[in-house]
What does this fold into?
Amino acid sequence: MARKNEIRIIAGRWRGRRLRFPPAAGLRPTPGVVRETLFNWLRAEVAGARCLDLYAGSGALGFEAASRGAAEVVQVEANPRVVRSLAENSRRLQAGQVTVVRAEVGRFLRRPPPAAFDLVFLDPPFGRGEVADCCRALEDGGWLAPDARVYVEAESDWLPEVPENWRPLRHKRVGEVGCHLYRRA
It folds into this structure.
């Protein structure tokens, strides 16, 4: 059983490994049942993908993608303590494909991307209204590959405000969490 401030990687190279993270305001790791559902949805998309994990927090989504064969994972997080934890977990796993970036997500997305990403995980703190701006910045800033998948985790009552060319693929509600997967068309 997972302890407080700990996640367990579900599948792949690091299956069963437990990773600790510090307590931080607004940090809500994606629950295991949600991660399992998400990665079942993405089964054929992860291996070899370039992934962007925005508001990385515990790193649950990015480390799970790396464990399942993602070629590159960029984790973006603003909290310095959380960034140190992500970097330490990356070192422990010897996850050379994981890069941790300390940055506020809005500012990070104003930069030109190094290359387009195949998968994006967008899981901001609830109640701050940042989802729509991030989705628009991803689309307008050249961050997405032509057929990219974007996973958005938000409050269960959030009404999707995504770019017109994003097609909904899957949706699930788990308690207070709404899980949305889109494909860029």
